[in-house]
Amino acid sequence: MPFFLKDKTPMNKVNPKAILVGTVVFAIIYAVHILILPLLKNSLDMGEGGAMFAVSQMLGIATCFVSGYTAARIAGERGFFYGFNVGAIGTVLSALAAVIFSMVTGAKLPGLGLITLPYWIFVNGSLAGFAGLLVINMVEEGKREE
Known about the structure:
Blueprint lengths: L15 H28 L6 H26 L3 H27 L11 H29 L1
Helix pairs in contact: 1-2, 1-3, 2-3, 2-4, 3-4
């Protein structure tokens, strides 16, 4: 068997609680993100320009980082794996919610719609995975110092 297929932890030992909690955290923070943007736009007179885009991107990055951190912290191992899965699942669920919302209300899907979904799955999964990776590395570093 090739060395890259030898995993110390079999896939049947995946912690579903870590993925579930991380995905719920992603959904909650993303919902707050969606609800807070119109309030910021109106209250701060930001308009549609660069400042509003920057705030939206920062909130999106925070959503990925916090959910990936949460999943990896609960799992305690394989931070990138748990973070990536949480980011990817959260992105798919938010896209599904957007499609359902647009079908119910008749609203148009924002941007390019579902065409860019694979890109956002990769980006959000990678961001959340990076946060999870950092958590596991920090935990292991703390154990070495003790």
